[in-house]
């Protein structure tokens, strides 16, 4: 079993969100062995506390002050957050509130804990969690969800994962009224992985209304399977609204939704690697925060010029371009050269699959993927 090296125990109450299969429950069982556990996937427990929530309060009242309590799949019982709030105040109980969807909580009470609980996220495995077992080609093909990595049949596990998502997250939680339409939407949305999001085009191809697609995209975000990355817009151009890019949380999930099981093709490789790097940046920022905000950069006057990621810390910026190629081509540096005049820009990094570390005459760092990964693992990316 791999150790989640980027995620640490906390000393105060916190929410722990992450997609199904990322190992939240396993990690909690390992690190909070003395905690009182409530697992709301237990149907009997769920039905009992749904009918008589006072019983939950009675159990908490009997615990010693300062005890840890874990509520697993807390999104199923948002009404219990009232008691969580109460016992944080009255008995200094400390809670871990884990879940795979923030949608119901956002609607029904998560703000009750504002300032009293941290917000943490768990992601699929990053390279140094897997150690010698890490294989980038395998990750791009099947992803790094712990439930898939541990499986002897990754394809079958991913197929079951998609069905489980539709059945348990979407249907049972009544997140959409028209499940067939949502099922049509998913493979079309997967085509936008690593791409600028065109909602009108997505709606047309999925044969659903534009406002319905916007709601579906919110569901992907709330169930933690995809993230919209906004474009960086300087304050002087705040009115120039650009479309966001869409990133799914795991390359294997993207391919499973599209039903692509064969070896990764060259036309897929770039977006899959770019998306995996995005997940790595998000995951490592949990362990040692090195940026405040993350964007992509694409100035409107040169629409074909883009930089994949722009990290912002205070008033300073770091630009990162990712390419799934083994040889450096000069034309691939166009975006990093175009962004050079950005005020506060500290470093420009080009990440590729070659082996040589280089520095161009105009100070663009050319890093192999391994060098980039090591810089994230040691917290030295922005040094």
Write the layout of secondary structure elements.
Elements: E1 14-17, H1 24-31, E2 36-39, H2 43-51, H3 54-61, E3 68-72, H4 81-91, E4 94-99, H5 103-108, E5 118-121, H6 127-130, H7 136-142, H8 146-149, H9 154-171, H10 179-190, E6 195-196, H11 199-206, H12 210-222, E7 226-229, E8 245-248, H13 251-258, H14 266-287, E9 293-297, E10 307-313, E11 316-322, H15 334-338, E12 345-352, E13 358-359, E14 364-368, H16 369-377
Parallel strand pairs: 1-4, 1-5, 2-3, 3-4, 11-12, 12-14
Antiparallel strand pairs: 6-8, 7-8, 9-10, 10-11, 13-14
Q: What are its keywords?
A:
3 domains; Rossmann fold; globular; 383 residues; 14 strands; 16 helices; five-stranded parallel β-sheet
Characterise the protein shown here.
The protein has a six-stranded mixed beta sheet. A five-stranded parallel beta sheet has the order 2-3-4-1-5, covered by helices on one side. The model has no long low-confidence stretch (mean pLDDT 89). It folds into three domains: 14-121, Rossmann fold; 127-229 and 243-269, no CATH class; 288-377, no CATH class. By secondary structure, it is α/β, with parallel strands linked by helices. The longest helix is centred in the C-terminal third of the chain and has 22 residues, at 266-287. The protein is globular, with a radius of gyration of 22 Å. It is built from 16 helices and 14 strands. β3, α4 and β4 (94-99) form a beta-alpha-beta unit.
């Amino acid at each position: 079993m791999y150790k989640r090296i980027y995620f640490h125990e906390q000393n105060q109450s916190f929410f722990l969100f992450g997609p199904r299969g990322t190992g939240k429950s396993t990690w909690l069982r390992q690190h909070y062995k003395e905690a009182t556990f409530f697992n709301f996937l237990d149907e009997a427990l769920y039905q009992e506390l749904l009918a008589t929530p006072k019983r939950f309060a009675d159990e908490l009242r009997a615990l010693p002050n300062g005890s840890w309590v874990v509520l697993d799949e807390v999104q199923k019982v948002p009404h219990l957050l009232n008691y969580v709030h109460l016992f944080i105040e009255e008995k200094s109980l400390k809670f871990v509130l884990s879940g795979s969807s923030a949608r119901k909580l956002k609607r029904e009470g998560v703000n009750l804990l504002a300032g009293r609980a941290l917000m943490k996220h768990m992601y699929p495995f990053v390279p140094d969690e897997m150690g010698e077992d890490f294989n980038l080609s395998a990750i791009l093909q099947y992803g790094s969800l712990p439930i898939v990595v541990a499986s002897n049949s990754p394809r079958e596990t991913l197929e079951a994962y998609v069905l489980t998502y539709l059945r348990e997250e979407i249907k049972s939680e009544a997140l959409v009224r028209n499940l067939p339409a949502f099922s049509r939407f998913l493979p079309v949305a997967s085509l936008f992985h690593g791409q600028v999001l065109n909602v009108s085009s997505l709606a047309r191809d999925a044969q659903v209304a534009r406002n319905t697609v916007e709601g579906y995209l919110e569901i992907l975000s709330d169930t933690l399977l995809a993230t919209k990355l906004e474009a960086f817009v300087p304050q002087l151009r705040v009115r120039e609204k650009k479309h966001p890019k869409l990133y799914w949380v795991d390359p294997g999930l993207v391919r499973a939704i599209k039903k692509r099981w064969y070896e990764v093709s060259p036309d897929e490789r770039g977006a899959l690697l770019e998306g995996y790097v995005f997940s790595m940046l998000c995951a490592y920022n949990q362990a040692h925060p090195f940026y405040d905000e993350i964007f992509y950069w694409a100035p409107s006057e040169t629409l074909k010029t883009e930089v994949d990621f722009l990290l912002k810390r205070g008033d300073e910026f770091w630009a990162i371009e990712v390419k799934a190629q083994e040889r450096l081509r000069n034309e691939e540096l166009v975006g990093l050269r175009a962004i050079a005049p950005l005020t506060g820009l500290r470093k420009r990094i080009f990440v590729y699959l070659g082996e040589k570390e280089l520095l161009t005459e105009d100070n663009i760092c050319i890093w192999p993927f391994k060098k980039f990964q090591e810089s994230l693992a040691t917290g030295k990316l922005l040094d």
